[in-house]
Specification:
It catalyses: [PQQ precursor protein] + S-adenosyl-L-methionine = E-Y cross-linked-[PQQ precursor protein] + 5'-deoxyadenosine + L-methionine + H(+). By secondary structure, the protein is an alpha/beta fold. It contains 14 helices and nine strands. The longest helix has 17 residues. Bound molecules: iron/sulfur cluster and FE2/S2 (inorganic) cluster.
């Protein structure tokens, strides 16, 4: 593999001082034993033979720390599919990065967890596709997944590693939010993330089978609000809002190119996990550029930075530096224009259309998933 290390970032001319990214999502691999229909990975998954090697990842972590990144999220696919994960964690610790492992937990033995713990991981996020075995196993298309996850959660706590439960909610499990909360408490988690499915990539493909009704969504919001009060100081609940029924869009990524970056298994650096759904963006790769160069000068990062790119509707709006015009990938998916106002905003001319799509999907009652999988034949392996 050709790696071009550079000791000094090449500073690109920028009009205003750039913010420093404090978080980096490192998608170490797209390999995963589960097949969640809302997976945030792209529909075209990177094959194993396209993945960055260990040496490249270690260099990227060093560059991230020098750039000012404080937290690295080791994710995938399933990051434990990488046999060099412990080496990466040790290196992240060495260069001063807070290291969060995001895992589905399936296939992770107690011995592996012990090694991950000894490497110095700071925190583990464990996904549950349902609060019961029936739902988890169905949504992930993996029999026995739930039981394995329970065992991993107990082992994580036995090792004294702080634990967060991740649950993506949609029509098949949105009624389980109280059970997800109980599950998190019973497993000794201090935090739970309840994220409504975000409709890009795989989830967009499966929107008909995932979209909850408006009533379900508003009931879920009430359940979360009540639980936040009741569990204050015991369990932190982070919620990602359901866009399609919202009045205002989410501040996606807290603004494009403002706080974080994603590195794909093959080394492309993206402003968000779904950015590749936007055509004609030029994503630079860590094989050819340092992370600092990419952050400062890559065309993809500069495409929607700040507010100059915004349509007049957003540029003249008092919320423009609160939600940064919403989500570029959603604008692309619904409006066909990544520079449009996010249709989740009630001021967007497409807001009614978005709502109609959601209601039609929720009413249609599709139940079959198009499960996440490698879609192209693998000739190289
Ligand atoms: Fe946000 Fe633009 Fe809507 Fe204003 S008009 S609330 S900036 S998306
Ligand atoms: Fe790409 Fe929101 S997911 S900007």
């Amino acid at each position: 593999m050709n790696v071009v290390p550079r000791s000094e970032p090449i500073a690109a001319p920028v009009a205003v001082p750039l913010p420093v990214p404090y978080g980096m999502l490192a998608e170490l691999t797209h390999r995963c034993p589960l097949m969640c229909p809302y997976c945030s990975n792209p529909v075209e998954l990177d094959r194993r033979n396209a993945e960055l090697d260990t040496e490249s990842w270690l260099r990227v972590f060093g560059e991230a720390a020098r750039l000012g990144v404080l937290q690295v999220h080791l994710s995938g696919g399933e990051p434990t599919a990488r046999r060099d994960l412990e080496e990466m964690i040790r290196h992240c610790v060495k260069v001063g990065l807070y290291t969060n492992l995001i895992t589905a937990g399936v296939g992770v033995t107690p011995e592996r967890l012990q090694a991950i713990s000894e490497a110095g991981v700071d925190h583990i996020q464990l996904s549950f596709q349902g609060a019961t075995a029936e739902v988890t196993d169905h949504v992930s298309n993996f029999r026995g997944a739930h039981e394995r996850k329970l065992a991993v959660a107990r082992e994580v706590r036995r090792l004294g590693i702080p634990l967060t439960i991740n649950s993506v909610v949609h029509r098949a499990n949105i009624h389980q939010i109280p059970d997800f909360l109980e599950l998190a408490l019973s497993l000794g988690a201090k935090r739970i993330e309840i994220a409504h499915a975000q409709y890009y990539g795989w989830a967009l493909r499966n929107r008909g089978a995932l979209m909850p009704t408006r009533e379900q969504v508003f009931e879920a919001l009430d359940v979360v609000e009540e639980a936040r009060e009741r569990l204050k100081g015991v369990l932190t609940i982070d919620a990602v809002v359901p866009d399609y029924y919202a009045k205002y869009p989410k501040a996606c990524m807290n603004g494009w190119g403002r706080q974080s970056l994603n590195v794909t298994p093959s080394g492309k650096v993206l402003p968000c996990h779904a950015a590749e759904t936007i055509p004609n963006l030029d994503f630079w790769n860590v094989r050819e550029h340092s992370l600092a160069e990419i952050w400062q000068a890559s065309p993809a990062f500069n495409a929607f930075r700040g507010t100059d790119w915004m349509p007049e509707l957003c540029r003249s709006c008092e919320r423009k530096e609160k939600d940064w015009g919403g989500c570029r990938c959603q604008a692309m998916a619904i409006a066909g224009d990544a520079a449009a106002t996010d249709p989740a905003c009630h001021k967007s001319p497409l807001h009614g259309h978005l709502l109609a799509l959601a209601e039609a999907d929720a009413a249609a009652g599709v139940t079959d998933y198009d499960y996440r999988r490698f879609t192209t034949p693998d000739r190289a392996q």
